[in-house]
Design brief:
408 residues; alpha+beta; BirA Bifunctional Protein, domain 2; 2 domains; 8-stranded mixed sheet; 15 helices; 37% helix; 21% strand; elongated; binds histidyl-adenosine monophosphate
Length: 408
């Protein structure tokens, strides 16, 4: 017996139905905000991610699926979508002209994490990335899109918001923070590494002793420069104006190192402990860090499996759709094939290739979640009709084959 790898799951049945529903809702909403589809490769050079998510991140430290390909290149399965899309923006030379690009994407991401409910090693994200827009109203739009997506899917959320400052104010804060850390005793082993690579990730540490130690640490968003302060205020006022509630969280630094200014996370507690269902923020520095011309970028990604787990609990039923077409005698199947081909021009048809008793066909139609049942027996074959049953409202009748398209 060969099983799927740990932390990797088949998506089918009810979960596949949720997957399609989530993608459909997300696409409809982001297209109305002017976003277009981009699909980038699942495999990229490892250094793309190391340089973008940062050496200090858990992803770069221990979660990448890396290997050397047959050409001797160090490659890895993408752990997230942003880096590949920034690479594409630069490769298209859009950074040179500071072109405005608004892209959305969905697909698999790979992280070698400890699997648990809502945390997989291969999982799916729906995300957007917007380039070339400095205005804070683009940050507002990111959050409005996410709020609309979750409202449409009837998923509750809490929004956490922070500003990580810019290249002017962030280094001043970092120095203050490191000075504070130097005055304290031991940090956990991970945080000692973080102190060298990217000290503010320590704010995010889950270790209780580290958290206690940080209780009187300098606060990130009270060290912002005038421009960052102004933008952060404008963001908050616009969200309030648009009826979006949020909580400021000065310790929200996110698990990836590329953010500056706006950072946000959408949290939900319907599948046990509070977990992030989406996260994102501004990453203006990343374009330059990956070799492009200085520019502007902002985006978010939603964890689709986490939404599926929430929707699963609400037990929405797959709605019935399509026609189940069948016969009581195999001789009638060629006739049915012709009918099916005609109907399939604009309808879903499940055609049964085997003759069965009426009750068995009805039960198969029910399992297939068909809405309409059509069957040909001896009488129907003679008078060119089909037995019709609506599996939703249970209405039964005979339908003339030539009038089928009009009647259905
Ligand atoms: P992230 O916070 O690492 O951000 O991931 C976004 C979302 O993906 C999380 O909020 C969570 O719902 C889901 N997720 C993460 N890891 C797992 C996992 N192991 N299993 C299931 N779901 C998971 C990013 O990936 C950034 N690229 C987002 C972004 C786009 N920032 C700017 N643009």
């Amino acid at each position: 017996m060969i099983n799927a790898l740990r932390g990797m799951k088949d998506l089918e049945g009810q979960n596949a139905f949720y997957y399609e529903k989530i993608i459909k809702v997300c696409e409809e909403i982001v297209k109305n905000y002017g976003f277009n589809l981009i699909l980038t490769p699942h495999l990229e050079l490892s250094k793309l991610f190391k340089r973008s998510v940062g050496e200090s991140s858990d992803i770069a430290q221990k979660e990448m699926y890396e290997f050397v390909d047959k050409g001797g290149h160090e490659v890895c399965l993408r752990p997230e979508g942003t880096a590949g899309i920034v690479r594409s923006y630069i490769e298209q030379k859009s950074d040179k002209t500071q072109s405005v690009k608004r892209w959305f994407y969905h697909g698999s991401m790979f992280r070698y994490e400890r699997p648990q409910k809502g945390r997989l090693r291969e999982f799916h994200q729906f995300g957007v990335e917007s380039f070339g827009t400095k205005s804070v109203y683009e940050d507002v739009n990111m959050i409005l899109m996410l709020a609309e997506i979750f409202n449409r899917l009837e998923i509750k959320f809490e929004l956490l918001l922070n500003s990580l400052g810019c290249p002017v104010c962030f280094p001043i804060y970092r120095d203050k923070f490191v000075e504070f850390l130097n005055s304290k005793e031991t940090l956990c082993e991970d945080c000692q590494k973080r102190k060298e690579l990217n000290p503010i990730r320590i704010l995010d540490c889950k270790n209780e002793d580290c958290q206690k130690l940080l209780s009187d640490a300098p606060v990130l968003n009270s060290s912002l420069c005038e421009t960052c302060k102004k933008d952060f205020k404008l963001l908050q006022n616009s969200l309030r104006d648009n009826g979006i509630e949020f909580q400021l969280d000065a310790k929200l630094v996110r698990g990836l190192d590329y953010y500056s200014k706006t950072a946000f996370e959408f949290i939900n507690d319907e599948i046990g402990a509070k977990s992030a269902i989406a996260g994102g923020g501004r990453y203006d520095r990343l374009i330059e860090n990956l070799g492009g011309k200085k520019g502007y970028g902002i985006g978010f990604a939603i964890g689709i499996e986490r939404l599926i787990a929430i929707l699963e609990q609400k037990e929405q039923k797959i709605s019935r759709s399509g026609i189940y077409l069948c016969a009581l005698d195999e001789l009638y199947i060629p006739k049915l094939l012709k009918i099916a081909t005609k109907l399939r021009k604009n309808r879903k048809v499940f055609l049964s290739y085997e003759a069965k008793k009426l009750a068995k066909h009805l039960s198969n139609a029910d399992s297939a979640n068909a809405q309409i049942f059509l069957c040909m027996g001896e009488n129907e074959e003679k008078d060119n009709t089909l037995f019709y049953k609506n599996l939703e409202n249970k209405i039964e009748k005979k339908l003339l084959i030539e009038a089928l398209e009009k009647e259905l």
